[in-house]
Amino acid sequence: SWSDIFSRILSEKVEPQLGNGRITVLYEYPSAEAALARTTPREPRVAERFELYACGVELANGFGELTDPDEQRRRFVAEMDVKEQVHGERYPIDDEFLAALAVMPEASGIALGFDRLAMLACGASRVEDVIWTPVAETRP
Question: Which of 7, 16, 100, 110 meets the CB 3.0–4.6 Å disulfide criterion with 62?
Fold first, then answer.
């Protein structure tokens, strides 16, 4: 899909170049790439989402929360339609979540990856080098 192509190009070709020499912020993502974010008032194809990069590493991801339950339901249904077409399966829509959106005030949030900050501070090239708990190895 268009979304898959966008994500692949962004992650493989664009992101490794971001934040080299200075902090970089990508903002106003395509709505298809921001499932829980509200759209901008001026352009419904664009979402209020941003990511913060330093040294080719995504440090933070933030967005304005979508609080319209009808729009969120439409997005969930469209996502499940694609999932069913591609993978032959479908998950139920979380009606309790949608009900909570109906009474949720406007909000926004940001997730900052402390492990990624530690990576940069230590000069590590992989997040696995800075996590404080060992990752279980899987054996064939």
Answer: 110
Q: Which tokens go with 85?
A: 């077409």
Residues 106, 98: Cα–Cα separation, whole Å: 14
Count other C-beta atoms under 10 Å from residue 36's C-beta: 16
Q: Quick one: DSSP state of residue 17?
A: G
> Is residue 90 within 8 Å of 77, Cβ to Cβ?
no
With tokens 């926004």, the residue in question is 108
How far apart are the C-alpha atoms of 31 and 11, rounded to whole Å? 17
- Rounded to an integer, what distance in angstroms lies between the CA atom of residue 10 and that of residue 136? 29
CB atoms under 10 Å from CB of 39, counted, come to: 19
Q: How far apart are CA 77 and CA 61, in angstroms?
A: 24
36-85 per-position pLDDT tens digit: 999 999 998 999 999 999 988 889 999 999 999 999 999 999 989 988 99
pLDDT tens-digit profile of 77-129? 998 998 899 899 999 999 999 999 999 999 999 999 888 889 888 888 888 88
* 62 strand-pairing partners: 50, 110
